[in-house]
Write a structure and sequence with these properties.
It is a single chain. This protein is α+β, with helices and mostly antiparallel strands. The protein contains five helices and six strands, in the order H-H-E-E-H-E-H-E-E-E-H. The protein has helices at about 1-5, 15-25, 40-45, 60-70, 100-115, and strands at about 25-30, 35-40, 50-55, 70-75, 80-85, 95. It has a four-stranded antiparallel beta sheet with strand order 4-5-3-6. A two-stranded antiparallel sheet has the order 1-2. The longest helix has 16 residues, at about 100-115. It starts with a helix and ends with a helix. Belongs to the ABC transporter superfamily.
């Protein structure tokens, strides 16, 4: 695909966001007919810097967290649940900032769009 892309534009659609970072020099994120991002994948990752958090909560707190924040994933860890979420501010006093990956930035772009539509 790399050789093919030297001579023409290649449209590559995938649900596995991390495939993009190793396969593409440029990436475009479109949603509802609008271009949300155009540029290099490594620059796109910086969009979510400082907005990705991990926090361990009690199982009874999970629903409230998913209603307040964009929860990327949750995993049971013993008697706690580990959440990875997006927030422009620290979502909980127990939360720690974690390194953003391309998928985090993609979800942040979509979250920003959803927020703008509901204002």
């Amino acid at each position: 695909m790399v050789e093919l892309s030297r001579e023409r534009i290649v449209v590559f659609s995938t649900h596995i966001i991390e495939d993009i970072s190793s396969s593409c020099n440029q990436v475009a994120v479109m949603s509802d007919g609008h271009l949300r991002y155009w540029g290099e994948p490594r620059n796109m990752m910086s969009i979510a810097n400082g907005k990705v958090w991990q926090v361990e909560v009690n199982p009874g707190e999970v629903e409230a967290m998913t209603q307040q924040f964009v929860v990327i994933y949750h995993m049971k860890q013993g008697d706690k649940v580990r959440l990875r979420c997006l927030s422009s501010e620290k979502p909980d006093h127990r939360a720690i900032e974690v390194k953003a990956v391309l998928e985090d930035s993609y979800l942040w772009l979509l979250k920003k769009q959803d927020h703008e539509q509901h204002q």
